[in-house]
Structures are given as structure tokens and as C-alpha cells.
Design goal:
185 residues, mainly alpha, Rna Polymerase Sigma Factor, Chain: A, Arc Repressor Mutant, subunit A, 3 domains, transcription, RNA_pol_sigma70_r2, sigma factor, DNA binding
Length: 185
């Protein structure tokens, strides 16, 4: 990051190569749209370049980067909420039906292993749907904690809140998920 702060574009390319997939995955889990995640990931790195002077030497890069990505994802969700003329199915694409098609194909291929694979795929789909149904502030905390393996302090930095607030959000999210996913327990 020091090289990026000095204006080294090659250093930015190296950061992008290392962090592009984690940033896309994070954004996709928040906005629930792969196409939007690609666009927002690119915008994240544009912002990294534009705001490079604001990065404090000695600070952790990952929470700073993810804070930019989460803020862009939040802004996009707000933008979509103000423009309700676009159907939700059109916005989110066919990811759910595609995963269902893949699950059915796995199930057709092979007997008991197919049934086990189908059940795992259904369970994974139910978890994805349950996380997607969470309010944005809870979903962000869950995605950063469970998928990105960030500490409460790192999440607090990324979301602009306190570690205690992160702990509360995770507790509330887990309670909602526990109720939603009770049939899978």
C-alpha cells in the first residue's frame, strides 16, 4: 500500500490481483448480484486509488479495503430501493435456479451419494437464502465474520461501528438464522 500511496500503478495492479476475488465475493454476498459485484469491485479499486492518501501508515489494509467495498454495496442497495420499477428477479438474476439445476443434476447422477449431495446443496441454498433475507446491517456482519473470517474489531473498522455493536449484530443475525433454518437442525 505504501507503493500505491506513492503513485505506483503497478502496485495497485498487484493489490487488485490479490484482493479482487475476496472483494467480489464480499460484495456479491451483500448485494446478491454477481454482475453488480463485478462492477462494484472495480469501483472499489478506483476508490482505493483515489483515496490512497487517506490510508494511515501502519493500519491494516483489509478492513480499510472492505470498508470501501461495504460502503459501495450499501450505496448500491439504497439506489435500487429508490428505483423499485426493476423487478427483484431481474436484478438478482437466475443464480437460485441455476444452483437448483446443478443440485438436480448431482442428484440424478448417482444414487445415495447423489441424494446426500442433493441434501447438502439444498441445505447450502437454504443458508444462502436465509442470509440473503437478513437486514443489510446484519448480513454485512455475518458475511464479514463467517465468510471473510474477520475479527469483531476488524469488522467494526470496516463497518464504522464498535466491536460491541458487531457482537450485537452477529447475535441478532444468528437468532434470525436459527429460527429460519430450524427445519435443517
Amino acid at each position: 500500500m505504501r507503493r500505491v500511496q506513492a503513485g505506483d500503478e503497478a502496485a495497485l495492479a498487484a493489490l487488485m490481483a490479490e484482493w479482487e476475488l475476496p472483494v467480489k465475493a464480499l460484495i456479491a454476498r451483500i448485494v446478491l448480484n454477481a454482475r453488480e459485484a463485478d462492477e462494484l469491485a472495480q469501483e472499489t479499486f478506483v476508490r482505493v486509488w483515489q483515496q490512497r492518501e487517506k490510508f494511515r501508515a501502519g493500519a491494516e489494509f483489509r478492513p480499510w479495503l472492505f470498508a470501501i467495498a461495504v460502503n459501495l454495496a450499501r450505496n448500491r442497495l439504497r439506489w435500487w430501493r429508490r428505483r423499485p420499477e426493476v423487478a427483484l428477479e431481474e436484478w438478482t438474476g437466475n443464480a437460485a435456479s441455476e444452483s437448483g439445476d446443478r443440485s438436480a443434476e448431482i442428484g440424478r447422477r448417482g444414487g445415495m451419494m447423489g441424494a446426500e449431495a442433493l441434501e447438502r446443496a439444498e441445505r447450502a441454498g437454504a443458508v444462502r437464502d436465509a442470509i440473503a433475507a437478513l437486514p443489510v446491517e446484519l448480513r454485512e456482519a455475518v458475511v464479514l465474520f463467517e465468510y471473510e473470517q474477520m475479527s469483531h474489531a476488524e469488522i467494526a473498522l470496516a463497518l464504522g461501528t464498535t466491536p460491541k455493536a458487531v457482537e450485537t449484530r452477529l447475535y441478532r443475525a444468528r437468532e434470525k438464522l436459527r429460527k429460519t433454518l430450524a427445519k435443517w437442525a
